[in-house]
């Protein structure tokens, strides 16, 4: 038995709705940048790093220890996260400490976790 899909007898565009939405649509370049930002979240290692930094500012050595990964692998992913504007760093002597770039990143991570835990 197959499901029947309802279809319209005729096509009717709701011009007022279409126009209102078109006026609110961001520029194509902005939408591209948003899609690129979300691609950064598509890697489990980067999500783990962000989650670690959600909890505490840390150096590469500490992150590598927690995630049981090499410092090289962590550094590579931190570079991607920095380029995306998701993490920042500060120097304290010879040690570099990483943290989330701002509260927006904290909100994105927090809301994501809240969403999947529902």
Notable characteristics:
118 residues; mainly alpha; 6 helices
Describe this structure in words.
- It contains six helices and three strands.
- It has helices spanning 15-24, 28-40, 44-55, 60-67, 71-83, 103-117, and strands at residues 58-59, 87-92, 95-100.
- Strands 1-3-2 form a three-stranded antiparallel sheet.
- A hairpin with a 2-residue loop joins strand 2 (87-92) and strand 3 (95-100).
- Helix 4 packs across helix 5 (71-83).
- The radius of gyration is 21 Å and the shape is elongated.
- The two termini are 34 Å apart.
- The mean pLDDT is 91.
Stretches where pLDDT is under 50 for at least 5 consecutive residues are none
Strand order of the main beta sheet, please? 1-3-2
What is the mean pLDDT?
Answer: 91
Could you state the order of secondary-structure elements as H and E?
HHHEHHEEH
Layout of SSEs?
Blueprint: H1 15-24, H2 28-40, H3 44-55, E1 58-59, H4 60-67, H5 71-83, E2 87-92, E3 95-100, H6 103-117
Antiparallel strand pairs: 1-3, 2-3
Summarize this structure briefly.
By secondary structure, the protein is mostly helical. A 3-stranded antiparallel sheet has the order 1-3-2.
